[in-house]
Amino acid sequence: MNFSSLDVIIVIVYLLGVTAYGIIKGGRQKSARDYFVSEKAIPWWAVCFAVVATETSALTFISIPGIAYVGNLNFLQIAIGYIIGRIVVSYYLLPRYFEGELLTAYAYLDKRFGAKTKNFASSVFMVTRVFADGVRLYATAIPLALILKGWNVFTGAADWQIYSYSIIIMALITLAYTYLGGVRAVIWTDVIQMFIYLGGGLLAIFVLSGKIQLGFSEIISQLAENGKLDFLNFSFDFTKPYTLIASVLGGGFLSMASHGTDQLIVQRLLTTNSLQASKKALITSGFIVFLQFAMFLFIGSMLFIFFGGEQMKSDEVFPRFIINFMPSGISGIIIAGLLAAAMSTLSGSISALSSTLVEDIYKPYWGKDKPESTILNASRVIALIWCGVLVLSAFLFMNSSIAVVELGLSIASFTYGGLLGTFLLGIFFKKARQSAAITGFACGIIGMIFVIYFTKIAWTWYTIIGVSITLIAANIISLFMNHSSDKKQ
Question: Which residues contact 346 (CB under 8 A, 6 or more apart)?
């Protein structure tokens, strides 16, 4: 193992430094509003970088190079859909969130349909986020566990115990600045972390180029011969996730759901001072994500040459190279970048889950007449509880054989269709009422249970199918309700 004392020092200094920076930058909060949206005082470029860092997580850093290692560049087609989806969100969903003083995405559903729809959507979001980010937290444990095993830190401990310790360590460090600094700490640490993990990726390409000892043209030639540079897939096989139509449409709808209805991202977009700033942050983030996907896929392709196509678990390809083959010092920087990616998503998840529970559930029913100081203290306690729940969720995925990036996106796609379909129902179907919205939402989720467990349709189609079921069911219910009302008259 090439992970030296210098690397360990770099990682420890990074973890302590980013925690201290987050606490200082977060400052003191005077209210729950300040804790969750920072009084709408964050510049658009910082929000843009925070969005990229949040959605990147350890999944991108670990799993996407593995996807290219065992496959090719087809995954990059999804990033095209991501850009399209962001543009749609910017012009159809974001304007709704800037009408009034909304602090969560689901407050719009309260205004449009009623409290029951908002509560249902909030609950679905919280359950989905717990499992999806449990996967992300588990992904962080992979390289950290390899380091702990290589250094014999927990002599005699079983693999599952070492993974458990890794998960808990990351959760506690991230909780420190999230608990004290609120969303302001989360966003500004995200900005730092994005540059750290992108720098780590570039360093990996530089080191790989030297170790492969081939010219650039030879590298490209070998990759082309092995089909590693195949980008567009024009197949119409609905069981394959990375065909062009499935990737662009699926990526577009997935991005509309994740960046338009998921509080994890919407919370960041609400911290800007205007709708235009929020739009700029969101659309720019799409192009940055495309470039970083391309970079991490290229790393995976180069690793294929380096390891000679050796068979191994896809999620362990890049961590294995970092820990065993990186020069001392550089591997520490790259591991710090990987941890940065993980911490940015985990901190965002804790903050988003807390804001949803406080603003959509706690305040309307138990906090109406309570002072801001009490609500702020409750917000911090709730953040602490959510951190514990995410740790427990991460434990569930320690024995999974599926690539973590696909597992995480599949979980999100399970309910994203119902969420996005309900928002689109509110925007484009003016006659729809609360009962139709809730019924359509429920049908969308139930329909996805059937699709996931009884068909072989690829996960990239899940959000589109969920949206379609939700809209069709809601409009059928609306027709019956309107017909019934006409008869009574």
Answer: 133, 136, 137, 140, 170, 171, 174, 390
Helices assigned H by DSSP within 213-243: 216-225
- Phi, psi for residue 364 in degrees, rounded to 5: -65, -30
Say what angle helices 317-325 and 44-70 make with each other, to 10 degrees.
100
Whole-angstrom Cα distance, residue 339 to residue 130? 19
Q: How confident is the model at residue 13 (pLDDT cuts 50, 70, 90)?
A: confident
Residue 334 CB neighbour total at 10 angstroms: 29
CATH number of 5-404: 1.20.1730.10
Contact 133, 125 (CB under 8 A): no
Q: What is the pTM of this model?
A: 0.82
DSSP structure string for 266-292? HHHHTTSSSHHHHHHHHHHHHHHHHHH
Question: What pLDDT, on the 0 to 100 scale, is given for residue 59?
Answer: 65
Write the single-letter amino acid at 393: S
Q: Mind listing the pLDDT tens digit for each residue in 434-467? A: 999 999 999 999 999 899 888 999 888 999 999 9
pLDDT at 489: 42
Phi-psi region of 198 (alpha: psi -120 to 50; beta: other; left: phi over 0): alpha
CA distance 449 to 431: 28
**Domain residue extents for the chain:** 5-404
Q: What is the 3-state secondary structure (H, E, C) of 140-207?
A: HHHHHHHHHHHCCCCCCCCHHHHHHHHHHHHHHHHHHHHHHHHHHHHHHHHHHHHHHHHHHHHHHHHH
d(CA 22, CA 428): 41
